[in-house]
Amino acid sequence: MAAAERYVLRATLVDDPEVSRTLALAGRRTLEQLHHLLREAFGWHDDHLYSFWLSGVFWDVESEYTSPVDAEPGARTAQARLDELGLQPGQTIAYVFDFGDEWLVELEVVEIGPAEGPLQAIVASEGEAPPQYPPPDILV
Predict the structure, then answer these.
(1) How far, in Å, CA of 140 to CA of 23, rounded?
(2) CATH superfamily, region 27-126
């Protein structure tokens, strides 16, 4: 059996590149678990559909892993373990949360190493994440 690995990923908001989070997850964790950690990291409380694209290109159907409740056939995030995806340091992964508001996130695989330190955690945070929903305009 191979040694356990830890993946470190840097998540940056495409529309606000000064806001990023660095996440650490054990290789046995799934893309679905990464999705939940991203929601926690950016303060997104309401769950929505989401997808990952391992090619780093948004809407690339060939490399898409989608939320487990999506009705379309295809690769599901709940079954996709990080250590089985062939990820490499420096690789970029595209992620979208909420197909209506389209929170676009660029994930960079920063490091893959021994399973030392936190195995599912937010390890660094830069910038204040905008609210999931902007405040409604007040009519005068």
Answers:
(1) 43
(2) MM3350-like (3.10.290.30)
